[in-house]
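ok posting inputs for the S-adenosylmethionine job
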Amino acid sequence: MKQFLIDKYNRKINYIRVSVTDRCDLKCIYCIPTDSERHSTRRALLRFEEIVRIIRCFANMGVRHVRITGGEPLVRKGIVSLIEQISHIDGIDDLAMTTNATLLSKYARDLKDAGLKRVNISLDTLKPEKFKLISRGGNLEDVLKGINAIIDAGLNPVNLNSVVIKGLNDSELLDLVNFSIKNNTNIRFIECMPVGHIGSLSRERFISAKEIKSLIEKYFTLEPAPSFGGGPASYFHIKGEKIKVGFISPITQHFCESCNRVRLTAEGILRLCLGQNAEIDLRDYIRSGIGDETLQEIIAKAVQNKPQSHQFSIEEGIPIEKPMSMIGG
Ligand code: SAM
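and the output
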C-alpha cells in the first residue's frame, strides 16, 4: 500500500525544498555570515544521483512540489542537468527554483528547456549602491539582466522576493512594486527572520508584514487574491494592474498549522522545520547501502515528528542557529 507523508498533527507533506549548495556568490547581510562566523564545517555535498534518489523516494510518498535552492543554486556545477533529472521523476509536477538571478542570464533558456517551471528571485533594492551594501559586493546589473532573461525565456509567473529591513529598504517599497508592474512579475515582501548571526537586524530594525502592507496601501488599492503555489504568502491583487503582491509573515502571523514542507540541506540533512533544529541525517543512511523501501520508512518516521511550530519571535524564542544559506531558505 502506498505510504503518504502525514505528521502527528495531521499535516500532509507534499513539498520539499532542496538546497544544492551552501555556497553563494552574494553574501546578503541577513542571510549569510562572514566566513569567520560560519557555523559548521563543510561536509561532502550530496551527489546528483543521491539528490534524485531522495526526491524519488519523497515522490513515491506523495510529494508533488520541489523547489531547488541554496546558497545559490546556480553556482552548483551541472545544475541544468540536475533540473532535467528531477523533472523526469514520476509524480513531481511542480519544479521551481529560488535564485538571486546573478547567473540567470546565462542559464535561463537551458533551465526552461530542462523542465524548470517557476522561479522566485530575491530583489531587495533597485539602487546599485544599496544592493552592493546588502549583498556585500554584488552587482545589481547582473540581477536585472537575469530577471529579463527569465522573462524572455517565458517562465511565468516570475515571483520577486524582498526581505524588508527598516532604514535599509523600507523606503523602496513603491519602487519595487512599480518595477514588478512594469515587468509583469509578482512581488512578495518577507519579514526578516532571526537567523543566528543577525541579531539586532531582525529585532531593532524589524518591520512587520502588516506595516509593510500599510505602506504599500498609501499608493495602491489591494484586493484579496487566492493563494497559489502552495506557499505561505497571503496575496492581493493591485487594483487596475495584473500582478499580485504577497506578504510573508513568519514572525507576526506564522502559518505552521498549514505547513506542508520539509527541507533537504546540500549535505543531506532532512530539516523538518525551518525554525527548529529538528534534523535527521539522510546522507549517512543512503551511504550505508540501504534500499529505497527502508529509506522511505526512515523518512516517514522522521516526518511523523515534524515540530508543531517554529519558535521565533522578535522578543524571545529560539532563533535559527544555522545561517539561512546552510538550511536552504
Ligand atoms: N541564493 C538564493 C536567493 O538569493 O534567493 C536562494 C537562497 S536564499 C537563502 C532563499 C531566500 O531566503 C531568499 O529569498 C532570501 O531573501 C531569504 N532569506 C535569507 N535570509 C533571510 C532572513 N533572515 N529572513 C527572511 N528571509 C531570508
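notes: The chain has a mean pLDDT of 91. The radius of gyration is 19 Å.
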